[in-house]
Specification:
single chain; eleven-stranded antiparallel sheet; 2 helices; 36% strand; rod-shaped
C-alpha cells in the first residue's frame, strides 16, 4: 500500500506543479485567470462500506479550479484596448464555432472594418442605423463604419446675447434704413457659418440696429448679400426685437423667426444653395446696461466629414468621430455572465466556451445589473499572485520530495525482509 500512496502523491504533486507552472507562465497574459489544483483523499472500502480503521490509499486530483477574480487594470495608449471592470465576458466569434468568451480586450479593426482579437475572432454587439440609433436584439459581429458622414443643412440657429441698452439710436433720418458698409448706421454685428444641403459653408452676418428705446432691428446677410431687400435692393430687417422695460426676455418676436437664406456666391466664387426655413431663436436675448456680448451662437448644420477615430464608452457604445467635429454611435458591445464561471471550458487563446456545468449565458450591456463596465484604453492583467505562486512551488517541491521518500523507505523495508535468513 505504501507504494500506492507515495505514487499517488507524486502524481498529484506533479499535476500541482504543472498548474503552478502554467499560472507563472501566463502571469503577463492579459485576461488570464489563474487555476488552483484541488485534491481529494482515497480510501479502500468493502462492498458494504462498513470497514473500520481504514487507512487511506493515497490522493487524487479532484479538480483544477479556475479563479475568476478581478485582475488589475492598467492603462494603455490604444483606444481599441478594452477592459471589463466587474463581472462579464466579451463575446467573440469566428462565424463557425460556438461563441467564445474572453476577458482579454486586445482588439483591433481588420481590413473589412470588423473589431477582432489576435485570433481573428470578431467582437459581438448591437449595430447602429445610419442615424446612430442602436438596434438591440440578437448580437452579431461589430463592424465599424469606413465611409464618411454626409453633410446636413442648417435648420435651426440659437442666438444668445446682450444688446447694450445705453446705445444710441442709429436709424438714419432719410434714405436706406441701413448701409451695411457704414458702421454708423448700426450698433453691433456678429457672424456665424451655416451649411447648405451640399455641406457648403455660408457666412451669415447679423447686424443689430437700435431703432428706438427697447426696439432693435436685425438685418442678416449671406456671403455679404442681404437675405431680404426692398424693390430698390436696399436691405430689409429680417425681424425686430422688442424688449420689456426691464430689458429681460423679448416680448417680440414670439417663437422663432423663419429665415429663407437665398443662393449666393462664397469667397471662392462657388455657388451655394438656398437654405429655406431656417428657424432663428432669439429668446435668449437681453437688453441690459452693459456692453454688447454674444454668449451663445450655435446652429445644427455641418459639412461632410471623414472618420478619424472610434471611442468605446463605459456602457459599451462605440462612438465614431469625424473630421467635421461630429460623432455618432456605430454600435454597442454586448457582454455575458454565467451562474457558474468555473464550469466554462478553457479553449486557449484567452477564451472559454459554455458547457452544461456553466449554464447558459446571461446577456446584457455593460453597466446593467451586476454587469461590469468597459474602460477604453486599458487592459486587465492576469490575476496571478506571482509571489504566492513561487511559495506554492517551493511547497509543492517539498511535498514531492516527501512522497518520494515514502517510496524509498518502503523499498528499504522490503529489502530488509528479502535479506532475512
Amino acid at each position: 500500500m505504501s507504494f500506492q500512496q507515495g505514487l499517488s502523491g507524486l502524481n498529484a504533486t506533479s499535476k500541482n506543479l504543472e498548474v503552478i507552472g502554467n499560472n507563472i507562465a501566463n502571469s503577463n497574459t492579459y485576461g488570464f485567470k489563474a487555476s488552483r489544483a484541488e485534491f481529494a483523499d482515497m480510501y479502500a472500502t468493502s462492498m458494504s462500506g462498513t470497514g473500520t480503521n481504514n487507512i487511506g490509499i493515497g490522493v487524487n486530483l479532484a479538480a483544477v479550479a479556475q479563479q475568476f477574480t478581478q485582475g488589475n487594470i492598467v492603462t494603455t495608449e490604444n483606444p481599441m484596448d478594452l477592459s471589463l471592470n466587474g463581472a462579464g465576458f466579451f463575446q467573440v466569434t469566428d462565424g463557425k464555432s460556438p461563441v467564445t468568451y474572453t476577458r482579454n480586450g486586445q482588439f483591433k479593426v481588420d481590413r473589412e472594418g470588423f473589431v477582432v482579437n489576435n485570433q481573428g475572432d470578431k467582437l459581438m454587439g448591437y449595430p447602429a442605423d445610419g442615424n446612430g440609433i442602436i438596434q438591440p436584439g440578437t448580437a452579431g459581429p461589430l463592424r465599424m463604419p469606413t465611409a464618411g458622414i454626409d453633410p446636413a443643412a442648417t435648420s435651426t440657429i440659437t442666438l444668445e446675447m446682450n444688446l447694450d441698452s445705453r446705445a444710441a439710436t442709429t436709424l438714419p433720418a432719410a434714405g436706406p434704413q441701413i448701409v451695411l458698409s457704414d458702421p454708423r448706421t448700426y450698433n453691433n454685428a456678429t457672424s456665424l457659418t451655416v451649411y447648405d444641403d451640399k455641406g457648403q459653408d455660408v457666412a451669415l452676418t447679423y447686424y443689430f440696429q437700435k431703432a428706438a428705446t427697447d426696439t432693435w432691428n436685425v438685418y442678416v446677410t449671406a456671403n455679404g448679400a442681404p437675405i431680404s431687400t426692398d424693390a430698390s435692393g436696399n436691405p430689409l430687417a429680417s425681424t425686430t426685437i422688442n424688449f420689456p422695460p426691464n430689458g429681460g426676455t423679448p416680448t417680440a418676436p414670439v417663437g422663432t423667426v423663419t429665415l429663407n437664406i437665398p443662393a449666393s456666391t462664397n469667397g471662392n466664387g462657388a455657388q451655394t444653395l438656398a437654405i429655406p426655413n431656417v428657424q432663428l431663436d432669439l429668446s435668449g436675448a437681453t437688453q441690459y446696461g452693459s456692453n454688447f456680448a454674444v454668449t451663445d451662437l450655435v446652429q445644427n448644420g455641418y459639412a461632410p466629414g471623414q472618420l478619424v477615430g472610434i471611442q468605446f464608452e463605459g456602457n459599451g457604445i462605440v462612438t465614431a468621430r469625424y473630421s467635421n467635429g461630429q460623432s455618432k454611435p456605430a454600435g454597442q458591445v454586448e457582454i455575458a455572465t454565467f451562474r457558474n464561471n468555473q464550469g466554462l471550458l478553457p479553449m486557449g487563446g484567452n477564451g472559454w466556451q459554455r458547457s452544461f456545468a456553466s449554464g447558459d449565458p446571461v446577456l446584457g450591456i455593460p453597466g446593467d445589473g451586476n454587469l461590469g463596465t468597459i474602460q477604453s484604453g486599458s487592459l486587465e492583467e492576469a490575476n496571478v499572485d506571482l509571489t504566492g505562486e513561487l511559495v506554492n512551488m517551493i511547497t509543492a517541491q517539498r511535498v514531492y520530495q516527501a512522497n518520494a521518500q515514502t517510496i524509498k523507505t518502503q523499498d528499504q523495508v522490503l529489502q530488509t525482509l528479502v535479506n532475512l535468513r
